[in-house]
Each structure stands twice: as C-alpha cells, then as structure tokens.
Amino acid sequence: MAATAAxxxxxxxxxxxxxxRGVQVWWDRHSLIGSxxxxxxxxxxxxxxxxxxxxxxxxxxRAGSVAxxxxxxxxxxxxxxxxxxxxxxxxxxxxxxxSEELRTLASMLLTAAPSLFDDPTARLFLEEVERFSVxxxxxxxxxxxxxxxxxxxxxxxxLSQLRVAVEPLIERIPSQDRALLEGxxxxxx
Length: 189
Fold this sequence. Notes:
The chain is mostly helical. The protein has two domains: 2-52, no CATH class; 63-182, no CATH class. Helix content is 85%, strand content 0%.
C-alpha cells in the first residue's frame, strides 16, 4: 500500500514536471527542494522494496514450520473426531476420553493460531479447523449413546473439508519429512 502511494507520488511529480510549464519553472527556481524531495522519494521506494523482500523471505522461511503446526493440529482434530465416534459406538471408546481429546484440540488451536493466522493458506485451514471443532464439540456434548447416520455423515464431511484445507500446507513439507511426521499410520488419509 505504502509502496504504491510512493510510486504514484513519484509518477505524479514526473508527469507534472514533464507537461506543466509552471511546475517546471517552480522546480527550476527551487532546485534544493527538488533535490531533497527526489532523494526522499527514492529512499522511500527503496526502503519499501527492501521491506517487501525481507517480508517475503520471512514468510518463505516460516512456511515449513507453519505447515508442520497445521499437520499436528490436523492430527489432533482427527484423533478427537475418531474418539467421539468410538465413544458413541462402543459406549466408552478404546482410546482417550472425548472431552480430553477436545481439550487438547482446543489447547493446540490456541497455541498454533497466531502463526497460522499470518499465512493466508494456513489462515483458511485455521478457519476450517475452528468450524470443525465447533461441530465436534456440539456432537460430543449433545450425543449420549449412538451417533445417528446423519450426524456421522456430517462429522465425516467436516473432517473431509478439513483434509482438503490442510493439503496445500502439507505439500510444503518435503516427502521424507512428511513420512516421519505422519508416523506409522498416515495422518493424511
């Protein structure tokens, strides 16, 4: 935004100097002011370009760690979903308790949200995992006993949408590292 404003100001000054005779005369009479203004504009444009280059480099360097955080959050979301389904199917589940898995998911979301929010792709994943969390929390709180087929479908659909949202982030992780992070049973399946 600031780079665009500085570039537009520079273009306006050049256009006025080229086509408006009164401006040419004024700048000729005030050459020191003209030199200072030109120097400041060049400095501003240079600083803005350097700032943008540094910001892009930082985003690129953080892309891997953001993807790993997203993969970890996705794995916990799957565990929470599976625990809720198992608990309702078997009356208790073989894994952890749904409330404990949901608390862990909420904690992970609170921890990972600031770094996920800064990355546009990760922000979309964050929004999707928040929607997913609400769905799982509601189902865990309102279901006592079996999940109806409709609710199970809704939960599986929400998990599928979450999988689609995390895939662009997972692609950032090199395949050999991805296999290590996913462990023996693939997290993204």
